[in-house]
Amino acid sequence: MLNRQGRPTEAGESSEALAGTFTGNRALIIEEPLIFEIGRPEVSGVDLPEAPKVGHRLGALERRRPVGLPGLAEPEAMRHYVRLSQKNFGIDSGMFPLGSCTMKHNPRLNEKMARLPGFADLHPLQPRATVQGALKLMDMLAQALLELTGMEAVALSPKAGAHGELCGMMAIKAALAARGEGHRSTVLVPNSAHGTNPATAALIGFHVASVPARPDGTLDPRDVADHLNADVAAIMLTNPNTCGLFERDVVRIAEAVHEAGALFYADGANFNAIVGKVRPGDLGVDAMHINLHKTFSTPHGGGGPGAGPVVLSKALAPFAPVPFLRRDGERLALVEHTAEAGAAQPFGRMASFHGQMGMFVRALAYILSHGGDGLRQASEDAVLSANYLKAALADVMSVSFPNRPAMHEVLFDDEWLKDSGVTTLDVAKALIDEGFHPMTVYFPLVVRGAMLIEPTESESKASLDLFIATLRDIALSIRAGETARFAGAPYFAPRRRLDETRAARSPVLRWVKPAAE
């Protein structure tokens, strides 16, 4: 029997606990219908005069039937969306341990700065003379990123990580073509890479060759050397890698790649682990995107906003895309067309406008408020937090690479679940019942049943201890054979476990009013 939360009834549970409610609500947990179920398309929540009959210029594109938006009074509309927002989980709600995503705290100072009218009210087509403050801020951010990475130039226009990857790889392709080596068509990608890496290389016409990792989760420079030849254009390497490990042979790998005439693209998604500790340019990197929405605290998730500036080495700097900043005496100019680029050889453009001024403001506010020592401490604290989790859970969960220190994230596999009848997905769903967002599951693919946890530097020791205690309780429950706790989890969320495979393969994207009974 299920109780009113939908969870199996415990022995001795009172009959009252089995009772439902008339409304379907459970105290402040509101059963929220769709907005189409609340409102009606034939009514409006506001009185408006009849619209005058006017001609239109839509031609064959004129709407032939009503738009079908439900009519609600203002309080109804407001309450609906507020209640939906209360069902969201974010970094402001609690710990968000998604591995590979760096869901860190977004200081409210950043938000205050981004809302200053001089930044918030900008328009991309304003005269350049009226946006000198914005250009100065972009220049300060660019200089900070170059200082932290040891690189020569930076393209600020890419919108996010994958867009930045595309920018970096297009710069590499342009550089090779400029030196008469456009025939190089192969890109080496470790099998532990982010999935966007091979996708980006393939998108612009490269052939992708996978390089396997060693048993300890890192890349062997000898394996890289075995794959190098005159056809190789570049290697795409994440460091720290997706297993949460620092590639200790990265300099030797870079030297081998350069000796073969190829270039080195670094995925900067995990830069949060090494800021202030090591400069990628000093490791031999030629191009690297930086997720401002990971490393420098600007918020992300739900499709945006994002920003993925790309830093470039001296070899690639001339090929940075337009638009880019250039100093013209005391003023900053935005070079928006390749014809204005002078001696530079931009490969083209990634976007019509920069478009993410709010992200630039937030990132620079974060950098300036922390300073170099604060940024370095953030990296150190992120690594410390991950290793604390690793040490505290290693006796009850199986660490994928126990003999290597973790960087900012720690990787577990499902060996500890063997023969228990409980899966990685079950553990993730059980965490929802405990009030935690699950960790990243089944990624990276190099280990079975992966659980990738990134606590970031934002969490206090008390917060980490509660998370550790929760996972230990889950582990002990699994050892005790309490499979009912996991079989249908989550039990306490607004909705129970979904058939995710069916939802992905047969999505229902339009609400249809049910037929009247």
TrEMBL record:
EC numbers for this chain: 1.4.4.2
Organism: Blastochloris viridis (Rhodopseudomonas viridis)
Keywords of the record: Oxidoreductase, Pyridoxal phosphate
Class of the enzyme per the UniProt entry, highest EC level: oxidoreductase
Reaction equations catalysed: N(6)-[(R)-lipoyl]-L-lysyl-[glycine-cleavage complex H protein] + glycine + H(+) = N(6)-[(R)-S(8)-aminomethyldihydrolipoyl]-L-lysyl-[glycine-cleavage complex H protein] + CO2
Cellular component GO terms held in the UniProt record: cytosol; glycine cleavage complex
Gene symbol of the encoding locus: gcvPB
InterPro entries in alphabetical order: Aminotrans_V_dom, GDC-P_C, GDC_P, PyrdxlP-dep_Trfase, PyrdxlP-dep_Trfase_major, PyrdxlP-dep_Trfase_small
GO biological process terms held by the UniProt record: glycine decarboxylation via glycine cleavage system
Name recorded for this polypeptide: glycine dehydrogenase (aminomethyl-transferring)
Domain of life: Bacteria
Domain Aminotransferase class V: 185-301
Example of a GO MF term: glycine binding
Residues annotated as domain Glycine dehydrogenase C-terminal: 378-482
Function summary: The glycine cleavage system catalyzes the degradation of glycine. The P protein binds the alpha-amino group of glycine through its pyridoxal phosphate cofactor; CO(2) is released and the remaining methylamine moiety is then transferred to the lipoamide cofactor of the H protein.
